[in-house]
Specification:
It is built from no helices and eight strands. It is mainly beta and 93 residues long. Strands 2, 3, 5, 6 and 7 form a five-stranded antiparallel beta sheet that branches. A hairpin with a 6-residue loop joins strand 2 and strand 3.
């Protein structure tokens, strides 16, 4: 499964330094970290999922203030790429 995203429109006043990508299966209670990538990366391949067609994904932008509010895929991702737009990287936003 490949998760893709766009850069946030607002960086919260500080340069984005990385993105955190997480996933959660439909029956899971908690999100699991799939990857942390640098600020220039806009996609990541997520391997090892039991059923990639039964997972939701989310991406959060990170800057010196911390992680912004993550943005989730609108629907549970199917076998095609999941796409989302990361939110601001400002802490507490």
């Amino acid at each position: 499964m490949v998760v893709e995203w766009d850069a946030p429109a607002d960086d919260g006043g500080a340069r984005v330094t990385s993105f955190v990508v997480e996933y959660k299966s439909a029956d899971a209670l908690y999100w699991a970290r799939a990857a942390v990538v640098d600020a220039l990366t806009r996609s990541v391949a997520v391997h090892g999922l039991r059923r990639a067609d039964d997972c939701a994904f989310r991406v959060a932008a990170v800057n010196e203030m911390g992680a912004g509010e993550p943005l989730e895929t609108d629907v549970t991702a199917g076998p095609a790429a999941a796409r989302t737009t990361a939110t601001t990287a400002a802490a507490g936003s």
